[in-house]
Structure formats: C-alpha cells, structure tokens
C-alpha cells in the first residue's frame, strides 16, 4: 500500500487531522507517523479484521461495522450495541508507547450509560489506560484499568474530583483525543485541550483501541493513531 507523507510546520487542529482520513499515513508535527481507519472497506454487519472484540468484566458486547448516513467518513462506522461491564475493541497489531489516539464518536442510546472512550498502552482487555466522554454525566474522565479494576486518575494541578464537566450531547458527532508520552497524558475534546494527567503505572508500549460502558450504543469513525519517533 502506498503512503502519502505530509509535513506540517504547525500542529494541525483535531478536526483538520481527521479531515485527512482518506490518506493511509501522514507525518504529523514532523515526528509522528499517523494512520486513520474509517471502516469503509469492511462489509456492513461484519466485525473488522485485525481487532480483538471483547470486554473488561462480564456481558455480551457486540462490535460490528454498520452503514451510517451521518458518518463523518461515509459510508461505514464501527458500532457497539451489546451490553457488558466495559465493551472493548483492541487493535491487535498496534504497539505504541508514546504517541496519540483520536476518534470521532456519536453516543446514540443507553439508559444505564452512554459513553465513548479511547484506549492506549493496552496489554490486554484487563490492563490499559482509557479516557472516556459520557453523554449522561456530561463529563470527560481518564482512568487506568489494572487487572480489570478501573480507577480514575487525578488531573495535574488538582487533587480529588472526577475528570472535568463538559457537555456531551447525544446524537451528535464529537472528537476525543489523548496524546501520551512517558507518564504524561494530554486530553483534547472537540478540538479543545481539557486537562493533563501524570501516571507511571503502565510504561511499556501497548495496543490502542475503543471502549464503551454497560448498555451504551455508540458509533465510532475516523480512528487516528500514531507513534512519536
């Protein structure tokens, strides 16, 4: 597969980067090679290849590629419509220590929860970092999950509390991103920097992926990720 390489003298916005979804690879900021997946090459109703579609905890997650008229990159999205403690989709062939992961998502339904998250440095479905936005709680929170136990992490410069409050309207597309290097994580939501977290529990390279909670019905598109060289 041929790759197109672009060099940006500035740091493009979240939406500008995602607008380049049709390009299989690009150079961001001069030292990060990025890939973007839009699930459009997978038949509707089928799971995407190269993914571990599973969960943290118990239940019956359901991850499928579906046609979606509102998709940012038509025609397909990745949809989670099952129920589990934490449905998890892990990109099996990734191994990134320092880099970024970003996705567009739309929270569709869910009475117990209505969440969308991105995962990085995953060892497996029970050990990873995740930042998620929740349309029922209207907040964004970053956690570590170790041996299946999820713990929220303090924001740099603030002790206590639980993430940050931010409107996450259901039925609308949003963008969620985390840049991670060493023990420092920077969260961006809809193109606006939100907060930073410092944690050194998982320092090795790991897989990236997607995450929901409980009965959330969530759509994902334009998953971008890259490793800082």
TrEMBL record:
Keyword entries, A-Z: Signal
Keyword Signal: yes
Residues spanning the signal sequence: 1-27
Full protein name: DUF1080 domain-containing protein
Species the sequence originates in: Bradyrhizobium cajani
């Amino acid at each position: 597969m041929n790759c197109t390489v672009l060099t940006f003298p500035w740091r493009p916005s979240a939406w500008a980067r995602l607008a380049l979804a049709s390009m299989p690879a690009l150079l961001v900021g001069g030292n990060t090679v990025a890939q973007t997946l839009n699930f459009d090459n997978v038949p509707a109703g089928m799971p995407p290849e190269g993914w571990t579609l599973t969960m943290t905890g118990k239940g019956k997650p359901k991850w499928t590629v579906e046609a979606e008229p509102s998709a940012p990159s038509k025609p397909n999205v990745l949809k989670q419509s099952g129920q589990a403690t934490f449905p998890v989709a892990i990109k099996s062939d990734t191994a990134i220590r320092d880099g970024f992961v970003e996705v567009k998502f739309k929270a569709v339904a869910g009475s117990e929860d209505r969440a969308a998250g991105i995962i990085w440095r995953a060892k497996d479905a029970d050990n990873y970092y995740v930042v998620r936005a929740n349309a029922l709680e209207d907040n964004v929170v970053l956690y570590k999950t170790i041996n299946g136990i999820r713990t929220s992490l303090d924001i740099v410069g603030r002790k206590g509390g639980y993430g940050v409050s931010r409107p996450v309207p259901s039925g609308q597309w949003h963008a969620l991103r985390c840049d991670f290097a060493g023990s420092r994580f920077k969260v961006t939501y809809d193109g606006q920097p939100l907060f930073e977290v410092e944690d050194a529990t998982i320092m090795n390279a790991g897989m990236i992926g997607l995450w929901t909670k409980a009965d959330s019905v969530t759509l994902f598109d334009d998953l971008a990720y890259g490793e800082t060289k």
